[in-house]
Specification:
Strand content: under 5%
Oligomer: single chain
Number of helices: 9
Radius of gyration: 20 Å
Helix content: over 70%
Largest sheet: none
Structural class: mainly alpha
Length: about 230
């Protein structure tokens, strides 16, 4: 058995913490929203029965990667798993999580369409700004943002692992300063509207699948570099 497989098995010791929580969350969100619209009935028109409960799926998984970096990483290294093996195993885990998220949510989206909005004419997954006619492009639109969010939280976990709480605080301060500077430059050069217009007129597949991959590459590369240097 290779070290990567061993590291992957360690990370999968608690699938309820790695895979299951987002699915619990989306299931509960569907149940709550369905019950809500069933009760309020005709008080809300069909055109207004759109919810943002899909966010529960993505937000419920934000703690997984910091948990892997702060808890399972030192445990794995104590079992003689190398840093490189742990990084490779995490990449495999995130890839599987992304594929599962994309295909699973696309399937739930088909069910939502087939049941006319879970029998109460609501929109929870089949949102107009993420709708794709093809099943696999729909899976990309659902799955890639999960990978992007995972990459960001993994980077935060690696920063905490290597530099501690002070390092994480300094990172957010630096990020805030850079964001404020960029925002000021865009406003002063009257470029903010042009950028918003550019992204607003891009295909949804580009906005939700192509451009988030840039975030995946940047944050993922930084995360891997930090994890390979991280102390146990």
């Amino acid at each position: 058995m290779t070290e990567t497989v061993k590291a992957l098995r360690i990370q999968l010791m608690k699938p309820s913490a790695t895979f299951a929580v987002p699915w619990y969350s989306i299931g509960i969100a569907i149940a709550i929203c369905t019950a809500l619209f069933a009760v309020i009935g005709g008080e809300v028109s069909y055109s207004n029965r759109t919810t943002g409960a899909l966010a529960a799926f993505y937000l419920s998984g934000v703690g997984v990667q910091p948990w892997l970096a702060t808890q399972l990483f030192p445990f794995s290294t104590a079992l003689s798993i190398t840093r490189r093996a742990f990084v490779r195993a995490t990449v495999l885990l995130v890839t599987a999580e992304t594929v599962l998220a994309g295909l699973g949510l696309a399937l739930l989206n088909k069910i939502e369409i087939g049941t006319h909005g879970w029998f109460v004419h609501m929109r929870l997954l089949n949102l107009p700004y993420v709708h794709q006619d093809d099943y696999f492009t729909q899976a990309l639109v659902y799955g890639v943002p999960m990978m992007a969010l995972t990459s960001v939280t993994a980077l935060l976990g690696a920063i905490f692992r290597l530099f501690g709480q002070l390092g994480l605080w300094l990172f957010f301060m630096a990020l805030g300063a850079v964001s404020a500077t960029v925002a000021a430059v865009l406003v002063l050069t009257h470029s903010l509207g042009h950028i918003a217009h550019f992204f607003g007129h891009q295909p949804m597949l580009a906005d939700f699948a192509l451009y988030p991959m840039v975030l995946v590459v940047v944050c993922g590369t930084a995360w891997a570099a930090l994890m390979l240097r991280s102390r146990v």
